[in-house]
Specification:
The protein is 66% helix and 10% strand. By secondary structure, it is α/β, with parallel strands linked by helices. α1 crosses α2 and α15 packs across α17.
């Protein structure tokens, strides 16, 4: 147990040493200062009593003693204040360094992990663990300080009477047992508190994020969200109250043991004073040791148990980071990847089931996306359209079958080489707080001509040209006060422009125009036809009228491909497709009559 705890702290101090070598020396200096303060407080009364009892040669000697101890105490307290503030600042920076690893792993981990509740809890625990670095270091320093002080006090007590030490040890051992049970209970509740904290954080974000403000007001969701948030608060409060009850019981028992120890020591010292002729200055010193011993021993127990408890936070961080070390080791690749402008994609008898589901989302699906053609993937909700896009992007792997890109299984590609061939716009695609240029280029070198062409393709060229800073204009107000807020349709157009700018061979559009009206959607699709030469484009849309613009339509139902062909061919040969199209066409006809 102790060796495991020490190994975790050794891991932490190695990272600390790697980040700032001076911090280790400063921690040792802090320990020396914290040892000097209580020792001076114990020895100072003894020296004064010894001097005033007539043993000092002169008043000058007494004044020298007073000046010396006041100087030592002042220097130690000033040094402690300085080290506390310095370490507080630098350890905060160390915390940020630890969180950089968590953030990098979170952005690079396999996509299924980002949707897994257990993984999300692990991330939260790792972040909380990294936030306790200062507590961990301070606990180590305090534990080392208390250990040295206890060693000094123990030697002094043994020189006087070993029975005094026995009383302290007995009370301390009982205190340790009580405190360990309390800390063990707290450790057992950490998982519950992490889950509650994650849910509360999600609900609080919704209630405080202006992006949800309109729906909150229109649909009167305040009451529902507050009920859910308060329910999670109650669950958290129940757990914390149970923890607090255990803490209170432990503290009451500690106070009682302190009373017993103090009473026993005072009685024994008084008897020693009477029987052995204990000098007044030694009597005062041992009274000080008696008062300090229990405080120091309790601090040693508390910091020791805190170190054990906090070591679980190191474990949380270490397990997440070391368990995903392969993600960090992959790093950024600077290799140049040739983009193929003639992408052929083949789904070969592909089946897939989401974790935790019994029904197959895709059931032996086969089709081909020919190079340089616009293909539309249509079907009702739940047919498996978005799952096909996720599989194509490599976010998930098929349970059965293969996905081939230009005759090669996508699993055999280097990850970055494969992703270089793909651009995508998802239903949830969004803009990021930064400049328009950053949103379009996303870390790649900016090509102004190519960027403006992308804006023109999605019908945003005139809008961008009218902005004061044009493509250098800031977007959203999260970071920049002057950030521009675009409409929902404009945001989607810019997300499409981002995909166009990447200039890959395979363009995936998963309901990218859901926020646009039918006419704007048609204009965007028609503009894409001008750049689809040599590029494979896959559309997913509920609006079947746009299929007229596509070279091929793949119609899906309940995870199966029911029909493939041109829009006209499916109208003639597929009854389900024809019925769906006629239903939508009827809606548009009625709408035109009303208008």
């Amino acid at each position: 147990m102790v060796s495991k705890v020490l190994s975790h702290y050794l891991y932490l101090f190695k990272k600390l040493h790697h980040e700032d070598r001076k911090l280790i020396l400063i921690c040792l200096a802090m320990a020396g200062v914290q040892i000097g303060i209580p020792l001076s407080n114990v020895m100072f009364p003894k020296a004064v009593v010894w001097a005033v009892s007539g043993k000092a040669d002169s008043m000058t000697f007494l004044m020298a003693i007073l000046i010396f101890f006041f100087f030592v105490s002042g220097v130690c307290n000033a040094a402690k204040s300085y080290f506390d503030r310095r370490n507080g600042f630098y350890l905060s920076n160390f915390t940020f360094k630890l969180r950089e690893d968590i953030q990098e792993i979170s952005m690079r981990m396999p996509f299924p992990m980002t949707e897994d509740g257990k993984t999300l809890d692990q991330i939260r625990l790792a972040k909380e663990g990294s936030g306790r670095v200062q507590q961990m270091i301070e606990a180590c320093v305090s534990c080392l300080t208390s250990f040295v002080l206890l060693a000094v006090y123990t030697m002094l007590l043994i020189l006087l009477d070993w029975k005094l030490l026995l009383v302290f040890m007995l009370c301390t051992m009982l205190d340790i047992i009580v405190m360990k049970k309390t800390k063990d209970y707290e450790a057992g509740c950490r998982g519950k508190l992490a889950a509650v904290g994650r849910r509360k954080g999600y609900l609080f974000q919704i209630m405080s994020d202006y992006r949800f403000g309109k729906e909150l007001r229109i649909f009167g969701m305040e009451g529902i969200l507050q009920q859910k948030y308060q329910g999670q608060c109650r669950k958290g409060l129940e757990v914390r109250m149970q923890i607090e009850q255990h803490r209170t019981g432990g503290e009451m028992m500690g106070a009682f043991l302190d009373f017993v120890a103090q009473l026993a020591i005072y009685v024994m010292l008084f008897l020693l004073y009477l029987r052995k002729g204990l000098t007044a200055d030694d009597f005062v010193m041992y009274i000080g040791i008696a008062a300090s011993f229990h405080t120091v021993s309790r601090t040693f127990v508390e910091t020791g148990t805190n170190m054990i408890l906090l070591s679980s936070s190191i474990v949380d961080y270490r397990c997440f980071v070391e368990g995903n070390r392969y993600v960090l080791e992959e790093g950024e690749s600077d290799a140049f990847h040739t983009v193929s402008r003639n992408c052929t994609v083949v789904f070969e008898d592909v089946s897939f089931t989401y974790p935790g589901n019994d029904r197959k989302t895709l059931d032996h699906v086969s089709f081909t996306l020919e190079p340089g053609r616009q293909i539309s993937l249509v079907g009702e909700n739940g047919a498996g359209k978005s799952t096909i896009v996720r599989l194509l992007c490599g976010f998930y792997e098929p349970d059965e079958g293969r996905i081939l890109l230009n005759g090669k299984d996508i699993k055999d590609y280097d990850k970055e080489e494969y992703l270089a061939q793909i651009s995508a716009v998802f239903q949830e695609s969004t803009l990021y707080s930064g400049t328009l240029e950053e949103n379009i280029c996303l870390g790649r070198e900016a090509n102004q001509t190519h960027m403006r062409e992308a804006f023109r393709m999605v019908g945003m060229e005139e809008k961008i040209r009218k902005l004061p800073m044009q493509e250098k204009s800031n977007v959203l107000k999260y970071i920049h006060d002057d950030g521009i807020e675009f409409s929902g349709g404009e945001k989607q157009r810019l997300c499409i422009a981002r995909a166009v700018y990447k200039d890959s061979g395979l363009l995936l559009l998963d309901e990218p125009t859901a926020a646009l009206d039918a006419l704007a959607e048609k204009e965007i699709y028609e503009s894409f036809s001008r750049i689809s030469s040599g590029r494979t484009v896959l559309f997913i849309s509920h609006r079947l009228n746009s299929n007229r613009l596509c070279d091929k339509v793949i119609f899906m139902e309940k995870g199966h491909v029911c029909a493939q062909g041109s829009h006209e061919e499916l109208i003639d040969s597929c009854e389900a497709y024809r019925d769906m199209y006629n239903l939508q066409a009827q809606y548009y006809v009625k709408r035109e009559m009303v208008l």
